[in-house]
Design a protein that fits this description.
Elements (H helix, E strand, L loop, with lengths): L5 E4 L17 H10 L3 E5 L9 H10 L3 E4 L4 E4 L2 E5 L4 H14 L2 E5 L4 E3 L4 H7 L6 E2 L11 E5 L5 H5 L8 E7 L2 E6 L4 H12 L6 E5 L5 H6 L2 E4 L5 H6 L2 E2 L7 H8 L12
Parallel strand pairs: 1-2, 1-12, 2-3, 7-8, 12-13, 13-14
Antiparallel strand pairs: 3-4, 4-5, 6-7, 6-9, 9-11, 10-11
Helix pairs in contact: 1-2
């Protein structure tokens, strides 16, 4: 039995299926039971606060959320107050724009408030379908801190992009779509955000639990005391997890919390 002080949940394919717009009915009761048990509830996601799915946001508004680690640890809040943020240097943004314009590539900016893009061309639409509303505003970065950028390039175009030297300025590039990559600080990750939050709240990392499913959760699992992988998650993550639960459609989050003794409930569906 593991009794955490704080539990982090990934969003996509842990709490929520993007393509089906599906959130299990057991998620809200799971959050409620954690609060009743005196356990803080947190989300750790690559999404911006502005991109949290409506159904997840409804759960947050209904029962509250203690910690939000967002944009891969670039923007982090405790009960609505920002406790750590890591905006991209405007000089580096300008350099990325220069490289992209030289090759006629589209690019985007992610803040905690919105996603703004250089254009609304087809490649952008194809990449962002089903994610989050966005607007065309190529100068948005001049008026607001930017925590992550999108560059709409194929794998074959990556070499030309990196030849500009932007990664040597302390950035990493993560592909999330055949037509798009994220650009963020080299040390940006959910794990960094969790470490920062726990340092501020004086919570030992050994007393933290995390649920996830993807490769970007590997460092998070290495950081916390107890990692729970979804049953349909990546094999590399399941190998690192201390417990593997069922997929979200089978109420994997709720039933894992019950099985591990974190909440005092019967398994979902058991009278």
């Amino acid at each position: 039995m593991f009794k955490p002080q704080l539990v982090f949940f990934d969003i996509d394919d842990t709490l929520f299926r993007k393509w089906e717009n599906f959130l299990p009915e057991s998620v809200l009761p799971a959050f409620q039971a954690l609060h009743e048990a005196g356990v803080m509830v947190a989300i750790a996601t690559g999404r911006s606060p502005c991109a949290i799915p409506t159904k997840v946001q409804a759960v947050i508004e209904a029962v509250g959320l203690d910690v939000l680690v967002s944009i891969n640890g670039q923007f982090n809040r405790f009960r609505g107050e920002t406790i750590a943020s890591h905006p991209i240097d405007p000089a580096d943004i300008a350099e990325v724009i220069r490289i992209c314009r030289a090759h006629d590539w589209d690019y985007g900016f992610i803040s905690e408030e919105k996603m703004a893009l250089s254009s609304d061309r087809q490649r952008v639409h194809d990449s962002l379908y089903g994610t989050v509303p966005y607007e065309t505003d190529p100068d948005y970065w001049q008026r607001h801190p930017i925590y992550q950028m999108n560059v709409f390039i194929t794998a074959e175009e990556e070499a030309a992009f990196t030849a500009g030297g932007i990664l040597q300025r302390g950035y990493q590039m993560i592909r999330w779509h055949p037509l798009a990559v994220d650009l963020l600080h080299a040390d940006g990750s959910k794990a960094r955000g969790i470490r920062e939050v726990c340092a501020v709240l004086d919570i030992p990392l050994a007393q933290v639990m995390a649920f996830g499913d993807e490769l970007n959760d590997l460092e998070m699992f290495k950081t916390v005391g107890f990692g729970v992988a979804m049953g349909d998650g990546r094999e590399e993550l399941k190998a690192l997890a201390k417990y593997v639960t069922t997929p979200l459609e089978a109420h994997g989050v709720f039933n894992a919390l019950v099985h591990l003794g974190v909440i005092d409930r019967k398994p979902w569906g058991v009278a």
